[in-house]
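2024-03-11 09:14:02 DEBUG pipeline.ingest accepted 1 chain
2024-03-11 09:14:02 DEBUG pipeline.ingest length=304
2024-03-11 09:14:03 DEBUG pipeline.predict start
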Amino acid sequence: MNAGASDIVPDSERRGLIGVLPGAARPYASLMRLDRPIGAWLLFWPGAWAVALAGLGPHGLKLILWLALGAWAMRGAGCVYNDIVDRDLDARVERTRLRPLASGRATVAGAWALLVGLSLVGLVVLLQLNRTAQIVALASLAPVAAYPFMKRVTWWPQAWLGLVFSWAAPVGWAAVTGEVEWPTLLLYAGAVCWVVGYDTLYAIQDLEDDALVGVRSSALALGSRVRLGVGLFYGAALLLWAAALRQVRPDGMALAALAPAAIHLAHQVATLRPADGSDSLAKFRSNRFAGVLIFLACLVVGTS
């Protein structure tokens, strides 16, 4: 770590919601990515898709709101845990060296306290679900805990992220129906492929630093074939989502409902500039809108 790094405050802590907080609280708000809601959106969408595709049920809107709160809390908790585990690596990567733990602006003890607090919010959400959904949700804890270590042991940590970031799909379906059935398994598998695709875009930003410090990623594994790789994962996601929708409504509406999302994802791949980290970041962030389009497809099919 550079001398005096702990005295450097990122611009993100001087503006917006974090900027109005007391100075002592800002590093911890940054630790849970309060200024970057994109991760919470991406964690939330698979659960919302499943609730919509299951037909919403009698309390669909309320359930979606609970899942949104859970996604926000657990995404924040995941970021805190990830930064606790990765604080040594973060200090060696240009994009992450000013993260609160890597720079020394937050303490490990304080980070663990924040993690416990966010987990308690997640527990409140868990208690709103039926027993089946609770069991499915709790089964995610082990893979979530293992995720930060994956970049040290496999070239495809994005695949593991896909497994954990898509877990809300079977949780949401079970919360409506009380069961885990084929439509949600297909929806989940599609979400896993989608996550691998968009997180590969995100990893493009860190190609040089990751190679230097020995961190592995799908972007490094794919190399010059990164556009093809992202396109194949997006294509697989669309096929699996189409299969899920056809399980619920076996006619052409399933495919037609997915057309806007397919166009959006195809545009991401067609216009991707792999050498431009800012472009790949913009493409990654645009998946928040992709989530909206897939939600609308699930809603149309699930409630028609």
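2024-03-11 09:14:41 DEBUG pipeline.report The chain has one domain: 22-303.
2024-03-11 09:14:41 DEBUG pipeline.predict end
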